[in-house]
């Protein structure tokens, strides 16, 4: 059937018809909110590079957990800013570390809060790299036991899911083995299998105080010219025992998200990263974009491309809009 019998506009005529035939849904439960928890901080401290996002002290977490519950968010993803850093990132696998404590606070306040712990050394190393150094290189195999220890410590502290973001080869297998040995065989791994070296992480490094002291991360994070390699990374992580996959960044990588979801069909999250958030905020603050419309359209875009959930700094705002609060 062709025009004039066929008229696609018939299905766009009223909001009710449009809702009936909409292919994609978005709910607060699809959204995961990253939280930055700063050791020694009491209250909140705004992150200059990310207007509207604060670092939180431990004393803020009970109230934050209540808000997250009221909004029905899917969960939180935790990052820590420790008081002290060292060459081997020991704060990451300290059972009394800042994120380990934060998990306790959140779970005490609202036990059903779904807590995902980011697993990486970069916030805890004095040099800001995601593993330990051998000269000016990040040593893959020496980093693995430390990353696995961090995952175990976070899972033991009560994290529901651990999410390694370091991009060392073999870390999913190392984490799975360490968790299983510790009796934590029910803790899922959401692997940042596909993490590109990206300019869009700029504001995060200010937020989490994790800028590399020298060089960059191109020796371990993926080259953004590659897509086939993303499928090999995802395949390798699933072979090693990943339960879920994360594709990062978000908006410039929807093609990768779609291919990963289509190829493997496992739960797949997209990370709408700091630079994407700050870029949109800047346009909103300059009066160039309608924030609500632009954020919801972007989030639907992730869902349409195949994301089961989206990690986004806009999670609370978006949930409130979806609930029409
Ligand atoms: C590193 C990590 C980074 C982000 C999440 N985990 C930064 C990096 O790789 O440099 C970036 C997230 C964002 O930009 O929102 N463990």
Q: How do the strands and helices of this protein lay out in sequence?
A:
Layout: H1 15-21, E1 31-38, E2 44-46, E3 54-56, H2 61-71, E4 75-81, H3 98-109, E5 115-119, E6 133-134, E7 137-138, H4 140-156, E8 161-164, H5 171-181, E9 190-195, H6 202-208, H7 228-240, E10 244-248, H8 254-264, E11 268-272, H9 274-285, H10 291-305, E12 309-312, H11 315-322
Parallel strand pairs: 1-3, 1-4, 1-12, 4-5, 5-8, 9-10, 10-11, 11-12
Antiparallel strand pairs: 2-3, 6-7
The chain binds ligand PBG.
Ligand PBG binds at residues 118, 120, 122, 130, 165, 201, 204-205, 217, 273-274.
Describe the protein.
With 325 residues, the protein is α/β, with parallel strands linked by helices. Strands 1, 2, 3, 4, 5, 8, 9, 10, 11 and 12 form a 10-stranded mixed β-sheet that branches. The protein has a two-stranded antiparallel sheet with strand order 6-7. Helix 4 packs across helix 5 and helix 7 crosses helix 8. Ligand PBG binds next to helix 6. The site of ligand PBG has 11 residues, from helix 6.
């Amino acid at each position: 059937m062709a025009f004039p019998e066929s008229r696609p506009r018939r299905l766009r005529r009223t909001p009710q018809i449009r809702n009936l035939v909409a292919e994609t849904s978005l709910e607060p439960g699809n959204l995961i909110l990253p939280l930055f928890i700063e050791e020694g901080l009491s209250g909140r401290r705004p992150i200059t590079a990310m207007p509207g996002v604060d670092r939180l002290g431990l004393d803020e977490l009970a109230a934050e957990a209540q808000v997250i519950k009221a909004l029905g968010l899917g969960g939180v993803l935790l990052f820590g800013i420790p008081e002290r850093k060292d060459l081997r990132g020991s704060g990451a696998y300290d059972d009394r570390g800042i994120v380990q404590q934060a998990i306790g606070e959140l779970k005490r306040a609202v036990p059903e809060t779904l807590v995902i712990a980011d697993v990486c050394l970069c916030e805890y190393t004095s040099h800001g790299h995601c593993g330990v150094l051998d000269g000016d290189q990040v040593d893959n195999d020496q980093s693995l036991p430390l990353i696995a220890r961090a995952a175990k410590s976070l899972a033991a502290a009560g994290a529901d899911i651990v999410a390694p973001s370091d991009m060392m080869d073999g870390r999913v297998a190392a984490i799975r083995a360490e968790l299983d040995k510790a009796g934590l065989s029910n803790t899922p791994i959401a692997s940042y299998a596909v993490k590109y070296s990206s300019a869009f992480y700029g504001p995060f490094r200010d937020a989490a105080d994790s800028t590399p002291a020298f060089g960059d991360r191109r020796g371990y994070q993926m080259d953004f010219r590659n897509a086939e390699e993303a499928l090999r990374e995802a395949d390798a992580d699933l072979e090693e025992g990943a339960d879920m996959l994360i594709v990062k960044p978000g908006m410039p990588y929807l093609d990768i998200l779609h291919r990963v979801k289509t190829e493997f069909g496992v739960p797949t999250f997209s990370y709408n990263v700091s630079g994407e958030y700050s870029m949109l905020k800047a346009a909103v603050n300059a009066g160039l974009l309608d924030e609500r419309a632009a954020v919801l359209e972007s989030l639907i875009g992730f869902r349409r491309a195949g994301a089961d959930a989206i990690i986004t700094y806009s999670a609370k705002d978006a949930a409130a809009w979806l609930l029409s609060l």
